[in-house]
Amino acid sequence: MTNDWGLKKEYLHSTRQNLWNDDYFEFLVKRVWKIDKPVKIIDFGCGYGYLAQMLMTLIPDGSSYKGIDISETLIDEANEIFKDCNKEISFEVEDMNTYEPESEYDLVICQAVLRHLSKPLDILKKMISAAKKGGLVVCIEPSRPMENAGIYIESDKYNPFENDGFLRKKWMDEIEAGGRDYQIGMKIPVYMEQLGLSNVGVRINDFVDYVGIEGTSEIDSFLNNHSVDMKYKNSKAFVAARCHVISFGTK
Ligand SMILES: C[S@@+](CC[C@H](N)C(=O)[O-])C[C@H]1O[C@@H](n2cnc3c(N)ncnc32)[C@H](O)[C@@H]1O
After folding, report:
1. What is the distance in A from the centroid of ligand 1 to the CA of 94?
2. Among 48, 98, 113, which is best to mutate for testing ligand 1, by the most ligand atoms less than 8 A from CB?
3. Strand partners, 69
4. Is 109's C-beta closer than 6 angstroms to any atom of ligand 1?
5. Where do the H-state alpha helices sit in 28-155?
6. Which atom of ligand 1 is closest in space to residue 47's alpha carbon?
7. Which of 39, 54, 133, 205 has its CA 20 to 30 A from that of 150?
8. Of ligand 1's atoms, which has the minimum distance to the CA of residue 48?
């Protein structure tokens, strides 16, 4: 599978539709991270600006946001989406591996990025260096075994364990080849503390993707997005808990 997310933007859009409950994201911003005055934000691996769309409606006026991503296609799309936005928002093509941020941000955030990198710890260090003293670093990343365990399909044939052996091999092969880490979400709070962040906290995204009788047009994208076999296409209902791990700490 390609690492160029510009070529996978349809998948990116499709999965982002079913990722968060708006009320829970608002709860995180206002009650957990307590963002109640203008903040300066940087989003590592921002894609087409999905997090920006969620954040900009919730953060106080006077805040600013900058998104960086290696994909020119996605940055172009983000700029197009926000072209009429009157807030202080910018998107830049940057490779995180070479990007050298100033320590000036109140909120340094990434979503579904560290999972795809061969050296996630290096990028987490860089994210921490981008935060000013007292700033908040937030990582939203998957634990694939938890996600896989969160799938249920209403069908006589459904065996929740049938994919386990295949996925275990795939994940172990990936990590042994020095590539993607399938349980990065679970490791980040540990890394955060090791790298000197304090007040480290962890949450789980509460979104559960449910496709029942009212959502038959969504079945194909559900099966595709959750890597479920198409043989279940005619089943009666589909459930997937996203289980993204949300780790955060202050510098
Ligand atoms: C799964 S996508 C997530 C995008 C976005 N955070 C979201 O949640 O919609 C991973 C993103 O990381 C970006 N990325 C991967 N390697 C990168 C690098 N070395 N520098 C900057 N961005 C990178 C990809 O281009 C892609 O947009």
Report:
1. 10
2. 113
3. 93
4. no
5. 50-56, 72-81, 120-130, 144-149
6. 27
7. 54
8. 9
Rg (CA), the chain: 18
* Digit-coded pLDDT (tens) for 16-59: 888 999 999 999 999 999 999 999 999 999 999 999 999 999 99
d(Cα 50, Cα 12) in Å, to the nearest integer? Answer: 9
φ, ψ of residue 64 to 5 degrees: the values are -130, 155
Percentage above 90 pLDDT, the chain: 73
Which string of b and e fits 4-23 if b means at least 16 CB within 10 Å?
A: ebbebbeebebbbebbbeee
What the chain holds in terms of domains, given with CATH numbers, is 5-143+182-206+243-250 (3.40.50.150)
The pLDDT score that the predictor gives to residue 2 is 57
For residue range 192-221, what is the model confidence (pLDDT) as tens digits? 999 999 999 999 999 999 999 887 888 998
**Cβ of 191 less than 6 Å from ligand 1:** no
For the stretch 225-251, pLDDT in tens is: 888 889 999 999 999 998 999 999 999
Q: Confirm or reject: Cβ of 46 under 6 Å from ligand 1.
A: yes
9 Cβ below 6 A of ligand 1:
no
